[in-house]
Automatic annotation (TrEMBL):
The chain holds residues 656 to 936 of 948 of the full protein. Residues 24-280 form the EAL domain. This is EAL domain-containing protein. Transmembrane segments: none annotated. It comes from Deinococcus sonorensis.
Length: 281
C-alpha cells in the first residue's frame, strides 16, 4: 500500500500493481485494520441557536487518522466503507463515541444535542434500533439528545422500509434531514415522517451573499425553506455559514440554528473541551 496523489488533490489508497488499478480489497482491509487499531477519530462542529447565540449542540464528523497518510477526510473513505458494508461497524463506533462525548460535555452544557450522520447502509440494517438502544443505555445519553442526520434520498427509500422511522421516534431520538434541497424535489415525505430538523444544504447558504453579485433568488429560496419548515413545525438549521452577511440574513429570516466556519470549525474533542471550559456558562 502506498500513497498516491489523485488528480483532484486528495489522497487515496491503492495496491502497488498499476495494471489492476485501485483495489477495493486493499482499502477494505485497511479500513478493517483502522477499526481494530482505533484509527478513526471524531471532530465536532458546534451548532448555535439563533438569535440567542447559545450553543445548541455538536455535529460529529468522522476522520481517519492514518499512520502514514495523516488525517483522511470522510469523502476519501466513506464511499468505499458504504460499498463494502464496513460503514455499519464504523458507524456504530461513531454513534457510541459521540454519545460518550455528549454525556461528558452535558455536565457543562446540559441538554446539548449530538448530531451524527447515518449512512443508508446503517439505516437499512435490521439491528439499528437495538444498537442505538444499547449505545444509549451504555453511555447514559438521553435519547432526546441524540439527533440522527438522514438524507432526503434515504427518507424516500424509507417509504418502503416504513416502520424504521417510527421506531426511531419511539426510541426518542431526534431526526434531521441533511443536505435539504439537494435530493428529491418531492416534498410529500415531510408530511408523513416524524422529522424534527431541516438542515439547509450549505450550497444554498454559500451562494447567499457570496463573492459574486447578490442573486435575490437565493434569498427567496432560503426564506421559503425556513417558512416551509416552520409551517410544518420543524426546526431549520443552516449549515456552511461562513460570512457575517449570511448570518445576518438567516437571523432576519428567523432561521432557528446555524453551523459553519464563521461560528466554529470542526475540531477534535480536546479543543472543543477547552473552548467549552473557556465559554461563560
Ligand atoms: P455533511 O454531513 O454535510 O457535513 C458538513 C461538511 O461541511 C463537513 O465536511 C464539515 O466539515 C463541512 N463544513 C462545515 N462548516 C462549513 C463551512 O462553513 N464551509 C464549508 N465549506 N464547509 C463546512 P466533512 O467533515 O469533510 O464531512 C463530509 C461529509 O462526510 C459529511 O457531509 C457527511 O456526509 C459525511 N460524514 C462525515 N462523518 C460521517 C459519519 O460519521 N458517518 C457518515 N455516514 N457520514 C459522515
Ligand atoms: Ca451532516
Ligand atoms: Ca449537510
Ligand atoms: Ca453533504
Amino acid at each position: 500500500m502506498y500513497r498516491a496523489k489523485r488528480r483532484g488533490g486528495g489522497v487515496s489508497v491503492y495496491t502497488p500493481d498499476p495494471s489492476r488499478g485501485p483495489s477495493v480489497v486493499t482499502l477494505e482491509s485497511a479500513l478493517n485494520r483502522a477499526l481494530e487499531r482505533e484509527e478513526f477519530i471524531l471532530h465536532y462542529q458546534p451548532q448555535f441557536d439563533v438569535p440567542s447565540g447559545r450553543l445548541r449542540g455538536m455535529e460529529a464528523l468522522l476522520r481517519w487518522q492514518h499512520p502514514e497518510l495523516g488525517l483522511v477526510p470522510p469523502s476519501d473513505f466513506i464511499p468505499l466503507a458504504e460499498v463494502t458494508g464496513l460503514i455499519v461497524p464504523i458507524g456504530r463506533w461513531v454513534i457510541g463515541e459521540a454519545a460518550r462525548q455528549a454525556v461528558a460535555w452535558s455536565r457543562r452544557s446540559p441538554g446539548l444535542t449530538m448530531a451524527v450522520n447515518l449512512s443508508a447502509r446503517q439505516f437499512e440494517q435490521p439491528d439499528l434500533i437495538g444498537d442505538l438502544r444499547n449505545i444509549l443505555q451504555a453511555s447514559g445519553l438521553p435519547a432526546a439528545q441524540l439527533e440522527l442526520e438522514l438524507t432526503e434520498t434515504m427518507l424516500m427509500q424509507a417509504v418502503e422500509a416504513t416502520g424504521t422511522l417510527e421506531r426511531l421516534k419511539d426510541l426518542g431520538v431526534r431526526l434531521a434531514v441533511d443536505d435539504f434541497g439537494t435530493g428529491y424535489s418531492n416534498l410529500a415525505y415531510l408530511k408523513h415522517f416524524p422529522i424534527d430538523t431541516l438542515k439547509i444544504d450549505q450550497s444554498f447558504i454559500q451562494s447567499l451573499a457570496g463573492a459574486g453579485p447578490n442573486d435575490p433568488r437565493d434569498e427567496a429560496l432560503i426564506s421559503a425553506v425556513i417558512q416551509l419548515g416552520h409551517a410544518l413545525n420543524l426546526k431549520v438549521l443552516a449549515e456552511g455559514v461562513e460570512q457575517p452577511a449570511q448570518l445576518a440574513f438567516l437571523e432576519a429570516q428567523q432561521c432557528d440554528q446555524v453551523q459553519g466556519y464563521l461560528l466554529g470549525r470542526p475540531a477534535p474533542a480536546g479543543s472543543i473541551s477547552a473552548w467549552l471550559a473557556a465559554e461563560p456558562s
